[in-house]
Amino acid sequence: MKKSGIIQSFILFISLFSTIGAQCRAIDYTSFVDPFIGADGGGFVFPGVTMPSGMVKVGPDCNNLDQNAGWDAKGNIVGFSHTHLNGSGGGCKYGNILVMPTVGKVDPVDYSSPRANETAKVGLYSVNLTRYNVGVRISATSHAAIHEYTFPQTDQANILFDMGSFLSSCERQEFVGSEVRILSDNEIEGYSRIRGGWNFSRAYTVYFYAKFDSPATSFGTWKAGALCPNVKSQFDSNEKTGAYVTFNTKGHRTIRMKLGISYMGTNKARHNAEEIASWDLDETKEAAASTWNKILGQVKLDGGSERTKTIFYSSMYRIFFQPTDFTGENPLWQSDKPYYGDYHAIWDTYRATHPFINLLRPTLGGKMVESLVDIYRFDNYMPDARSSNDNGRVQGGTNCDMLIADAMVKEIKGIDYKTALEAMKKNATVPPGDDERKQGRGGLWDYNRIGYVSTDFERCCTRTLEYSANDAAIATVANCLGDRETYLKYKKKASSWENMWNPSIESLGFKGFVWPRKADGSWVDTTRFNVFSSGSLTSPFYETFSWEYSFYVPHDMKRLIEKMGGKEIFSRRLDAYFTKSFTGSRDDLLYYTKLVGMCQISNEPSFLAPSLYAYINEPFKTAKIVRQILSTQYDTTKSGVPGNDDSGSMGAWYVFHSLGFYPNAGQDVYLISSPVYPKATITLENGKQIFITAKNASEKNIYIQSCKLNGKPFNNCWFRHADIENGANFEFVMGSKPSAWATNGALPPSMPETEIEH
Amino acid sequence: MKKSGIIQSFILFISLFSTIGAQCRAIDYTSFVDPFIGADGGGFVFPGVTMPSGMVKVGPDCNNLDQNAGWDAKGNIVGFSHTHLNGSGGGCKYGNILVMPTVGKVDPVDYSSPRANETAKVGLYSVNLTRYNVGVRISATSHAAIHEYTFPQTDQANILFDMGSFLSSCERQEFVGSEVRILSDNEIEGYSRIRGGWNFSRAYTVYFYAKFDSPATSFGTWKAGALCPNVKSQFDSNEKTGAYVTFNTKGHRTIRMKLGISYMGTNKARHNAEEIASWDLDETKEAAASTWNKILGQVKLDGGSERTKTIFYSSMYRIFFQPTDFTGENPLWQSDKPYYGDYHAIWDTYRATHPFINLLRPTLGGKMVESLVDIYRFDNYMPDARSSNDNGRVQGGTNCDMLIADAMVKEIKGIDYKTALEAMKKNATVPPGDDERKQGRGGLWDYNRIGYVSTDFERCCTRTLEYSANDAAIATVANCLGDRETYLKYKKKASSWENMWNPSIESLGFKGFVWPRKADGSWVDTTRFNVFSSGSLTSPFYETFSWEYSFYVPHDMKRLIEKMGGKEIFSRRLDAYFTKSFTGSRDDLLYYTKLVGMCQISNEPSFLAPSLYAYINEPFKTAKIVRQILSTQYDTTKSGVPGNDDSGSMGAWYVFHSLGFYPNAGQDVYLISSPVYPKATITLENGKQIFITAKNASEKNIYIQSCKLNGKPFNNCWFRHADIENGANFEFVMGSKPSAWATNGALPPSMPETEIEH
Q: Which chain B residues are Cβ-neighbours of A327 within 8 angstroms?
């Protein structure tokens, strides 16, 4: 044994010892994570390998390339690409820098393979490619991947790099250009340039650099499908190019590869590849698992079943996939601010994902928000969604406003709130014109002139409702910053939703619904529109319908309840929403829609609704519906997420409610639902802890009977962020029957009537 | 002598023989070109080397880097960069991939040098860098440059590549990122990424690859000013990087370098470098001169002075600098259409530059227009200006509409006119919102609702006037395509300028001026605005004033003349414009403004005015003012262009009027002025010729006494494109006194009253 060998063995020994030691001390929360939960059935969960906010999301892409996260339950594996989104709906994005091991003659067109023994863990994806009898293991750091291919014994063990491959479907990505260059017998680099996709983005370029642990024996490239053996490089003529390297594995069967990607250039990709320090894939895998374990370990659950914990930690894991940290990878401007992307979309994530990040990791949450402000500084508008370095597309309102307000009221540091308010005011005042699906507020001219978005513009009802909530967010931030004029102006505008309230519409005995209205003030006729009318971009209600979204006035529930006829009617109306059947056209709904009554629990417009009983002091009704959804709509299967995971949104909803509360985003308010676990301990970034004990909690004992907060009786069904930001001790007692607990408590705040004193 | 040597000598012999043969046969028109005319004095003419529409525009950049074409009359040379614009005003663009030979210790910060013996010819720039005693010669193909540096005898002869250098001034370009990599002892590559500048563009990346004819003896790189000897590459961390290679020139003193650039990638840049086939710079120089000579030779002038011919061919040369041909260099989308850029701006070039290209080189003109249509297809709007792959910024109207109409009425092939009309209609119907300085029509909401752009929007008068002309262009194209509904709609909208006509404004005895108007219909008070009020982006009149731009109704002069009070008053009013003094604030005008009376001959809003006497049958007045401008406002000095050359606009004005006519762009109409040369022969692309003889023409004999067209008396002071597109023979007789020629002819058409029959 050489000296270096002895040292290596010693290091291995120490390393094993440390690992064992750590296992003795700490719980491996990653063992509860099943990355495949939600990968199928419309969840589009990304089952490959990623670090928290990781730029590299490496995983398999399957035949047809029309699956949003690359992976598909059926069909062949085409290869392993390095960029993905988690849980996105609509058209695909990414799937760039596809690598595939093959055996035999190189075919640049037909190289996909059936698979066997596919497994996914935190930090590791593995599979056997049965066409070639190649074993694949992949792990990753934030900006690089390590691949380990175990080939059969052959002198034609190839690795293909296809710069012409990318995910595509409706709203498809389009190929723009590519280059490849073989640098030496163990190095290769290149790029793939793509445009379009879900957010109709400008062209973006993903560069790569890869290095092998063994020298290749031969190589070649291709362009527009034509193979060029021994040709080292292909230049960009807006054609698809690729390259291959061939190894002799008759002796040593395993080939390892470090691959760095970059949005800047190939030199940067090479620099990023150096993140993989060792050729030992397990070291990278362990480092990834260790990083994830620190995050997951911020919530410790006692009691509860293996099943629920698996759903819980798998859900919590996905919350931290996106937005992606592109800091140091911004090809658009020079800045010392953080640069996050893959806000996809904030319409989805402002409701639960970001509030959860703001609770557990406020420094990270602050970076995400400050990144939005920097995008405004250099790219004109804050995004509602942003991928591949381009804003787009807007779902409804400018819900980045909600993120700013959420951060502001939770006093998150590191954000230039003054500039943020300027960006919010731009949202509210400068029409984006032709770019209204890209950024800003479409139909703003109407909204600011006649008080609502008329039917001259698409998504008129969704927009009016959300702009009202967004204006409340602006008022909130202005209030905190002591800008009285702005506060008063936007507080008033936050009532704009009332201009779309049609008191004459009646359904199931309830009167008054948000309704599409023409620019002249008249209402759309009921023969042309009904309370279940739904649709996508061009519909008055975006991915929802009037019955559902007429509940969406999160900033002024007091006024909404008045409009609906008072508490009693509101209560019955919510009951009806969760129990009466949807009688509209199923064809209008998203194909994967799952309904609980009329509630589309599979999509974000429903997210806050189960908690709204808090505004009429009926927490037991919230408890019932929330626990019903948790136990019936989520499971541990590949179809275990009820809708598109939407960058962890479905996961965040599950996690919050499992802990027993849910945020009203943009406010410092959490609404209590029903804690699932006998004990949950949340460790905050500042080291303080939130203890949530729920005595007698079980599948049956879902109703809170009593509560103490920090030892004192607590009889409100909501609390403020300030109540928990420095730790808290909730002691719930649960029972199987609804109780009177909190039915006479103070109500959660509605749009503040007075401004903060400065 | 080796066999290859014999063959080379033979080829050289043949080549020399052909060259001599050609010289015996053909005139060297390039000998009349002085690339320095207009380089100084605000002309911002680019004096370096370019091919027609060439992507590489290689030339010196001087201290402070605040000169729009890089070159400055004073100060040191910083280096030679490969991208420039010609004659642009406002903020700088480009100046990328700067290379500088130095001697001695490498200093990545202070390396500029004084100069001596600076010369510029078509296809060749040369200079001595006196700090280093290095002789520099540079030539170029379309996508590559060849540099030849003659060093003193030294072992420290360096070539520096500064990826952090770029042109900058007001509306400045900002640095984004860069990389460099030394590939071998005679190869280097890298890129520079810049954003902003005059058109506030998104980040763009210029890649390069350079190869030397001798091996370097040492090398190094730098990053953020810190020198890294022997370090081969620097990755992109949004910092400025650079590289140097050092040669020993104690033996062979001359180092040659081929440098290709690309907007795609480094492999493409390498491919482009191969355009330079030989290390003999003179071969590249001769090829460039030969290509230029073919274009310049399309106009043959007999008679006239060396001075006027020098101005003429130097002006004609610059017409073909831009738009730049980026076909094959589009990093934004895949298309089989031509891809031109550096429309900078169409507001400048639609008036004369493009009509001249459409006359001489309609295939080229068609490619430029089809490129605009493709930009609409993939990038949302046709541009008014576009540089570095991004639209922006709009000066006044959507004058791309004028280009479409100009091509349509001249029946230029290769254009998808149907899609072009769709793009024009988008200009006229979809407000660009926040992007209104980038593309589309700002204030469109007003224009379409109340019939003019109100003072709520900037540039309200310029916009309303130009939108009216643009709408006439839309009507023209719709008419040609048989789209009656569109034709009638836009013909009506083409009268919108009348809504800004304030009949009560009086100046110098003339009544009725275009005037800023509020949204409520009231006029801006004369205490706040006057007929000389001028300004830039935020002013009602953009770079002009009411006295001047109230003449701008190119599509309906008949109606304008009525509004002004009839022919007699109109004639006196034009006289006053050219003779009475400008009595407004000079501070409001552009710093380089040159006035003839009130006429800012140094800027485009004046361009058509001298020809407007044609609309009242007073061609002799046009002759007088045009010849006055030609002889007093242009000369052969470095300050010989009266304003920013604006992508050859000043040159095109000179060339047209020297030939004796000037286009009313967007119409098939040329207005006759006063032919300068006894004989001019224009050879069209189809081989047909236009002969313009002007018997007795001289500096004094400027008035047309009679005219024959194709042997028949011709008594109109205008003609149609159809009259010349297949050749023509104009026989003018000139005299020193105004004559009655054409004073009773048919008037040029105003907005057509009836649509074309289909």
A: none
